[in-house]
Design goal:
The structure holds 2 protein chains of 2 kinds. Chain A is an alpha/beta fold. Chain A has 3 helices and 6 strands; from the N terminus they run βββαβαβαβ. The two termini of chain A are 25 Å apart. Chain B is of the alpha+beta class. Chain B is 64% helix and 13% strand. In chain B, helix 3 packs antiparallel against helix 4 and helix 4 (148-271) packs parallel to helix 6 (323-339). The chains are: A alpha/beta, B alpha+beta. The A-B interface holds A 30-31, 34, 62-64, 66-68, 70-71, 74, 97, 100-101, 104-105 and B 319-320, 366-370, 397, 416, 420-421, 424-425, 431.
Chain lengths: 114, 512
Amino acid sequence: MISIKDEGYEINHDPAERLVKFDGTLRLRGLNEYQPISDMLDKACQDSEHLTLNVKSLDFLNSSGIAMLSKFIITARKNNAKKITIVGSKDIPWQGKSLNNLKRLMPALELIIE
Amino acid sequence: MDTNSNIVRKQISLILVGSFIVFVILLIAARISTHNLEENAQRLENLVTQNNAKYQQLTIMSDSIRERMLIFFDIINSDDIFQVDSLILESARRAAIFIKARNALLRLELTAEQRLQIENQKKLLSDSQRVFSSITEQVMDGQTNISQEEIRSVRKANAAVLTDLEKIRNQQTMLGLQELILAKEANEASEGKITLLGITAFILSCLVIAFIIKQLITQGKALAQALHELKGYNATLEQRVELGAQELMEAREDNIRMSAELDINRQLQQIILPTRSELAEIEPLDIATYMEPAEEIGGDYLDVLKHKDGFLIGIGDVTGHGLESGIIMLMTQSMVRSQILHNLDNMKLPLGHVNETLFQNITRMSSNKHLSLLLLNYQHIKDNNADAQGVFQLTGQHESVIVVRNNGDLEVIDTEALGFPVGMVDDINEFVEITQVKLRQGDLVVLYTDGITEAANAKEELYGFERLCQLCQEQHRLSAQQIVDNIISDVQNYIGEKAIYDDLSLVVFKQR
């Protein structure tokens, strides 16, 4: 289990489950501050053909975070073999439009809104 | 602090326990020493008492013998029969004294040799007594020619007894001397023992004291370490306080900078807004706009641009707040304006172009901002026989568009599928779509930013899309300006005293 933790948020990568789980609220400033998370996602994506991002407990993600996720998806879609699943919540406002946009960036992406 | 008081408590108990152990060691040493000395003194005292008692009895015995000898000679030389009788009685009394003293002597501790000597004396004395008795009988009978031989034997026997007694006395003296030597040796041995004991006690005490000192030093070090850490904490604390002050100062500077930014942003937003006269020129429409910058300014974009075939309404919301958002809003405005010159024939093009240009600028700025952007291109239909008086094409992803028909019917146009966030990825052309809406007289169109729908009251409850739709439906017969005013006052009533978090932007138009 690889973790990135700070005040208000926690991100855990479980290589065995091929799962990256986000919790809390992410308001980092700029892509520089999101770089460690971005690196974790890239690494997780390289390590397995299938990766699930669970953002059901991510209550807030600012625009830099959405940009970071979008860039990650754009990178991932270049590799046709990659399979990405995103699990989100219908009860969290930021997720509706933003997750759909991710799906539009990568139609092969499996989006599960629970 | 707890650690320190614990250490002090440990030190005190260590000193107390150590002192107690030293005290006990010294006490035991002293006790053993005095016990040894007392034993020696007792032995000497016994010796002296015994010797004195023996000497006393021996003296009494010798004296009795001597007295009896004197009495014996007095008896021999006396011719007074009464005197002889009293002398015989006196002699018997002396004999009794002698026997009593001898018995007392025998009761004392005597050597076997001494006892044997005393036992041997008995025969000598009884023989002597027999001769003594016969002589005294002869004297009593008045005989004058007493055998000189008998007198000599008595004298000899008595002398022998006296010699024996003297021997015993001398022997006793020798024994006493021997005892004294033994006592002295015992004393010397005791002294040795006491010295050894003293040294042992001293060494033990030293060990205990050394242990205590070692413990105290260890604890002292722990205390010093604790103090050092405390100082470290203090230093860190001071540093933090200093940092805090610095941060405060920086925050103040930030505040000043931000309020300056705020002023600039307000001006940016306001100076670029369409003027009333521009809006008045748009004859086919009754149109009104509203823009209220929030306290912490956002990056709302709102524009109404006239062109040769009609006019273009743009509305958008740059993510985040601050000068950067304001600048991106300004750039967006310029880019959109540049599009009306060339690209309005194909409404699929402007959004992709704006995105491409803006993405490059945003990348150059090392910014991660992007914006929602909706473009509405209106054209008036001049043909009086047509089924509509106006038509608009809609493109871009933004908040849903509200249309209230003249009859009060509500139509909501979801724009999610019409575009993509602008400035986030290099190419969004594949996501851009167009939708077209016809307008008849009295139809109302409302565009807004999420500052309206996400305005929150004191309970953090949002104003919401449904409330806005309902209000639009209720008021669709009013003029565009009245509707704007009513929506804004309703939102302001709703949030009450609470500050607005985001810019409030609103475009309301009605087909004339």
